Structures are given as structure tokens and as C-alpha cells.
Structure to design on (361 residues):
């Protein structure tokens, strides 16, 4: 049975530098989940705002806390429900909810405490989630829920709703290179996503397998260092960095495997996309990935940071194409049964209804 939502707007708060996993999740979420959605971006690039508007999602771009609070004040009489999606969205949303006595849900996509500033952000996020101002905390993976529970967030406030995908759209016909084999990295070129670990695995493999090529799709602060490593290994023509891609569907049709070398993760959207699109996945056993992938059945997993093991799992796919076919079939079933957005959207609708009801009580 569908959950009937209250007639109040649902305002999403997100600070963003581009269209990555959380942004993809939010766009799909607004289109699939019942309710009147408004996205308030915090200093987002113009092309990201335009992308949401082109998809029919109402959104505004706020340059700071003052503009955000003005937007909330203008809608105060409608008693909107706030849903934050990252650290700045959580802090700004908490202030707005406290000031205007608005119900609030926090979505936790993951934590990346790799330096002092990020560790402070993680600590503050956990403390805010403990307060009464935030009524519900939705985690995209069980591993994230465990972190919040260990930080003292009440169990009654926590639940897990993984990311999901809408109905599949047929891919372009798979276009393998003539005798070539293509492994792909997709994500921001930054420390937490492990692009350096991808190269640690792929450079030796490319040297052993002359038919193997690789592509790193994304952009970020480590790009120049990564390119220098590739050039030093003499693999500039075989490991390419084409930059950020707006159309991943074309690339999915070309990949023979997706490699996820992240140091930390929630439930990566690109993992679900690969499963849906028939691209076998090799990944580190981190974050929410083992919640999704069953090793040897729907994908191949390596211990966190074990680059030799990650390379060995990828090499097994290169040497045994039949294994890839088996992984693809099971992965598609898993994605459809457990990470299907229309089903998950109804769970989200119940979260919003519960948060609004608690506030009205």
C-alpha cells in the first residue's frame, strides 16, 4: 500500500561540487518518491542546477546560510519537512529546523574522515544526529548505521534504506574493442575514492596482459599525480583519464569490468548501475559494498586496501569470461529484487510521513 504523504513540501539541502553519487540519488529520489520536492543547493555549479531543472525538479541555489534561511522563512507557513544530504546541508538544515521548529530527516550517504577537518565534520555530524531536532536518520548502508549507533544515536531514529535505480533503459549495443579488454574506474579523483589504489592494481596487470586497457572516468584533485604515474609507467595510451562524463551509459556499453577501489563507501550508485547494465564488478570489501555484493556470486571482492588481491580478482575475470557471465546474471537479479527505486521510494514516503506525524503530535 502506498504511503500517503502530508501536503507539506519536502525541502532537500545539499552542498555539491558536481553530479556525483549523492546528486544522482537525490535526482532519482525526487522523481520517484511521492511528495512536493524542492532542492536547495548550497553553492552548487550552475550546470548542476540546470540539470535538476531540466529533469523537472524544483530547485534554488543558495550562496550561503543567509540565503538558505531566507528561503526557509518564506516557506515557514507551509511547515516544510527538511531532508539534509551532507555535512553542510546537515549543519545549515539543523539551524533552520531549530529556528523555525521544522521537522527534519538526515540522510547519511557515508563518512570520509581522512584528515583533521573531515574528522571534525564527522564528529559534529554524529553529535547533531543525536539531538531532538533531527527526528529520523536514514543510512544508505548498514555500515553507516553502525557508526551512528556506536556514536550514541538512538536506535529508534535509525533505519537503512539503500540507494536504488529506476527501471532499466536499454544500453547501446556493447562495443568491445577488437581483442581489447577494458577495465573502468568511475568516481571523483580524490583520496577517499582510491584512484591511486586503482593504479596500484592496474599498472602491473596492464604490464602482464597486453590486451588490457583501463579508463578512469571522473575529475578531482589527484588528476595530475595520477597522470604522472601513468606516464612514468609508459601506459599513457592504455590507461586514459577522459575527465568527468555526462553520459555514463555510453561508457557502460564499453566496459568489461568496473573496479571500485574506494577506501570508504556507502552504497555507490555506480555499483548498482553496473549491476543493472551487465558490467561485472570487482571491488574492495568496504562500507555498504558487501551488503550489495555476494563474493563469487554477484561480484568479486577483495579485502580493503589489498591491491594485489584486487588485481587477482580482476585477472580472474580476464582469464575466465564464463565467470563474468555468471556474475552478471546474478547481479542483475540482486539489483532488481533489492535495489529497485519504485519499491524503496515507498519506504521513503513512510519515513517522511512518520517525521511529520511526530512533529504534529
Amino acid at each position: 500500500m502506498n504511503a500517503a504523504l502530508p501536503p507539506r513540501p519536502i525541502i532537500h539541502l545539499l552542498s555539491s561540487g558536481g553530479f556525483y553519487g549523492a546528486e544522482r540519488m537525490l535526482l532519482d529520489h525526487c522523481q520517484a518518491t511521492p511528495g512536493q520536492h524542492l532542492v536547495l543547493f548550497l553553492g552548487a555549479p550552475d550546470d548542476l542546477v540546470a540539470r535538476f531543472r531540466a529533469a523537472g525538479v524544483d530547485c534554488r541555489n543558495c550562496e550561503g546560510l543567509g540565503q538558505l534561511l531566507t528561503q526557509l522563512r518564506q516557506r515557514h507557513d507551509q511547515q516544510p519537512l527538511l531532508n539534509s544530504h551532507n555535512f553542510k546541508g546537515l549543519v545549515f538544515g539543523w539551524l533552520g529546523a531549530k529556528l523555525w521548529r521544522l521537522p527534519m530527516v538526515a540522510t547519511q550517504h557515508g563518512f570520509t574522515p581522512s584528515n583533521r577537518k573531515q574528522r571534525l565534520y564527522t564528529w559534529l555530524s554524529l553529535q547533531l544526529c543525536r539531538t531532538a531536532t533531527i527526528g529520523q536518520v536514514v543510512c544508505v548502508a548498514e555500515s553507516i548505521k553502525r557508526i551512528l549507533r556506536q556514536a550514541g544515536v538512538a536506535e529508534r531514529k535509525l533505519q537503512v534504506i539503500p540507494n536504488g535505480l529506476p527501471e532499466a533503459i536499454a544500453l547501446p549495443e556493447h562495443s568491445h574493442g577488437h581483442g581489447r579488454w577494458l577495465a573502468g574506474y568511475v568516481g571523483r579523483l580524490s583520496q577517499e575514492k582510491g584512484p591511486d589504489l586503482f593504479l596500484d592494481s592496474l599498472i602491473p596487470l596492464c604490464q602482464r596482459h597486453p590486451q588490457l586497457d583501463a579508463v578512469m572516468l571522473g575529475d578531482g584533485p589527484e588528476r595530475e599525480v595520477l597522470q604522472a604515474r601513468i606516464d612514468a609507467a609508459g601506459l599513457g595510451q592504455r590507461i586514459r583519464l577522459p575527465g568527468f562524463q555526462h553520459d555514463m551509459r555510453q561508457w557502460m556499453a564499453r566496459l568489461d569490468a568496473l573496479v571500485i577501489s574506494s577506501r570508504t563507501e556507502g552504497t555507490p550508485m555506480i555499483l548498482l548501475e553496473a549491476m543493472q547494465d551487465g558490467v561485472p564488478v570487482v571491488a574492495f570489501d568496504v562500507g555498504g559494498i558487501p551488503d550489495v555484493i555476494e563474493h563469487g556470486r554477484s561480484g568479486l571482492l577483495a579485502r580493503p586496501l589489498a591491491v594485489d588481491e584486487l588485481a587477482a580478482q580482476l585477472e580472474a575475470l580476464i582469464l575466465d569470461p564464463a565467470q563474468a557471465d555468471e556474475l552478471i546474471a546474478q547481479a542483475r537479479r540482486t539489483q532488481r529484487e533489492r535495489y529497485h527505486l519504485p519499491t524503496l521510494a515507498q519506504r521513503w514516503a513512510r519515513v517522511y510521513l512518520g517525521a511529520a506525524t511526530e512533529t504534529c503530535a
The CA atoms of residues 272 and 335 lie 7 Å apart. The radius of gyration is 21 Å. The first strand starts at residue 10 and ends at 14. The mean pLDDT is 92.
